[in-house]
Amino acid sequence: MKRILEIAGMVVLVAGVCGVIRELTDGWFRLMGFTRFLTENVWFLHGRELFANIVIAVLGLVLPIVADRVRKA
Question: What are phi and psi of 25, to 5 degrees?
Fold first, then answer.
């Protein structure tokens, strides 16, 4: 469980950072473009794509912290 949370955290962190870079460069940075589908297709996030990507990146930082607190079973 710990390893799965660490890997998921890394993927989410990279996706969030790539999304932030893409938003700051007006779409010039197309790496990991699947974050565009997460932020542009949700109706309440229109106009808040940068904020959503920052939240995704922070979630990616939190997952490894949670993974360290999970006991080995």
Answer: -105, 15
For CA atoms 42, 48, 52, 55, give the dihedral sign.
negative
* This prediction's pTM: 0.83
Extract the runs of DSSP E, i.e. beta strands, from the chain: none
Q: Could you give the number of structural domains in the chain? A: 1
Reading the block at residue 54, the tokens are: 């920052």
Higher per-residue confidence, 64 vs 27: 64
- Give 20-29 pLDDT, tens digit per residue: 988 888 877 7
CA proximity to 16, closest of 46, 48, 58: 58
3-state helix, strand, coil in the chain (%, to 5): 75, 0, 25
CB atoms within 10 A of CB 48: 13
